[in-house]
Amino acid sequence: MTSKQDTNSLSAKISAGLSSVLKGRKFEDDVADLYRLQGAHVQQNIEICNKKVDVFVTFTHPVKHRVIVECKDEKKAVDAGRRVREFYGLLTMARTANIADSAEIITRVPWGDAAKGTAYETGVSLFTYIEKIRTLIDFTQYLNGLIDRFEHFHPSMPSEPALGKYYIDLSAEREVNGQPEKLPVIDSYVHQWLNREEDDESTNLAIFGEFGAGKSSFCSKVAAEMAAGFLYNPASSRIPILLNLRDFVGKLDIEAFISSFLDRECGVPNPKINTFKRMADAGLFLLIFDGFDEMAVQIDADKLESNLMQIEKFAAIPGNKTILTSRPEYFTSAREEIEAIRPEENPLLNRRSRYEPLRILPWDDVQIEQFLKKRVPLVEGVKQPWTFYRDKIKSISRLSDLSQRPVLLDMIVKTLPTLVKKNAAVNLPNLYQAYLSNEIKRQKVLKGRDLLISETDRFHLLRQLAASTYADTRETITFGNARQLIEKELKPPNHEVEAHTREFLTNSFLIRRGDLYTFAHESIREYLIAARFVEEIQKDDPHFFGRRTLQPVILDFMVEMAPLVSNLNYWIEETKQMPYGQSSILAGNALSLLCSISTTLLKNKDLSRTQLSLASFSLADLRHTDLTGAVLNSCSFVGSRLSRSRMEKARRIKDCTFLLFYIDKAGHREMDWTNAELLLSLQAKYDVKTSSLGTQIFEMGDLLPDNSALHLIVLEASELRTLHLLRDYCSRTVSAEVAIYWDEIEALFDKHVGASELFDRLAQDAASRIRELIALKTSSPTTR
User: Which residues of 724-754 are buried (b: 16+ CB within 10 A; e: fewer)?
Assistant: First the structure.
């Protein structure tokens, strides 16, 4: 019996010893791979001066250098000082024999101060495995650049103060158990997230914010702070990698993008993506993908998913941390947004990385005042104190709304004095025009010479360029496109065409990516598009205006530019002379603009026999509007005050969007399931179309008494008959009254809520939720 126990014990010891040897060899192989990634020639387990060396490394660039390496894969250092001295003895012999130049010991865990002291005295370098991985790529130059650009000077904005001199902390909102939770300072939550354990449920963050909310500024601040932390103590911070996705327009190739980044931004000679991946595998990075919404010109669901799959290659690495920023409206539906950040919601997706969404909140009065105190003194030539700006902003309601966005508040600070001096109206179009004009003047001062193209001609070219790219559903142009535009519009002498083109592209808020030029910021392009369209309205010359459906942001600009209502009415009236079925996007846009100017402009209006495409009647009062014989293709009636008798007189209503109401008095908790089943049934039974808007249900129960739930169904009906069938089917399915027309809505609200006036609030909210989605419908070119 004893003999058998001894045998088992010996077998166990042999097995443990073999496991230890295999583990040690695996560690040696991993260490050797690190040197190979650095471009060195590596030999393992060789004898030098009659002593076994785990790894022998030879670097040939920039100069020949030979290193002997010992690998220690132990849970704790054993007799560390003696080992360092023994290895130093081997290094001395190897140097004398001209075999090696330096020595390194790589360990799994760090050694104590005594061993480090011995290593320092002898010249032997001690690294843990993680510390060695950190040396694979030297990011020192890049990290110092992040700090300098934030705190001192940004080379792309030489006339502007550094962002760090006037940055104000942002607040945000997250969802906890279905309820919003405010984060007073988003940085605090991000640092908490960075310190979470690797096996936490949510590894990555998605930061959503509208245009000008401060997403990119926040990314710059976080990157600069982490860069400073890493340079001070590499073990205490990750390496921030700030990747501006706007630099990559189209379908993303993440390996090529990062290799280019390492070469261009970090100054890494012959960058290797595998080296970067090894550092990512070790959990050394915070990867910040800024501007997901800016990387594709003509996005579709497949391209969006493809780009997310590329980011997934790094977002899915255990221990890695990833931040993704985007405008929320980039996603065409709530479902598309949810599937982007929670891919498990769709079992057909191959991604697994989840993102916790944080939504940047508009600035409050305290943040606005903090910004003004810091920013105003930095404006060159400023004469008024920051309180002047605060009081002026508060006195103009529209300005108060704009000032809640950091980018627009900065624009206000820089342009408000000019508008006040000229006694001009302080609105969004005037702010943009004053801002752009001032920037051109500043460029002239910086360059110390007159520009070839006058300000008047430059803005004419920019409006033309912006409108043409919008009409043609593209966002970029080539040098050749700009040259043709210059030749056609300005007609300079042949020998000056190229000079004019170069000057225009260099000094006109355009940036180049590869061989393509685009506007430096989408909001500048949107303003210029609106300005061109209003110019066409005033001149009764709709060259670009009728070629593509107007997006809400462009409509917002145009409303404040006071377009001629008479010409808009004339373009709508002209469709009465068109052959039947030849609907007009031009007239549809004109009608959408009228409704944006005022929801009452269509009241009592004669729209009989008009033929309109893609018009938005949202929130319009149509109870007394004459629609006899009208042809309405792909129009939106979301939130409109509809009269059934008027609608039934239309000659054709094809593929139009409507809003259905029903009230659940019981407040069923299983309504989510019912809604999903209802939509599936509608689509299957009546072939309800899933357009870019899609078929959606919004719940508005928080606005109703007695625990009632109001449901708004947004859907696209192929014809009016289909809409009525859908209404009847919905009513039977949910055992409730379903309303479409105004008299039905009044009766529904009076019966269950007691106030039909509540409809206005609900319709407004529903329309605002989906107006961006409706605007994404594409249109084909048409003529007047």
Answer: eebbebbeebbebbbbbbbebbeebbeebbe
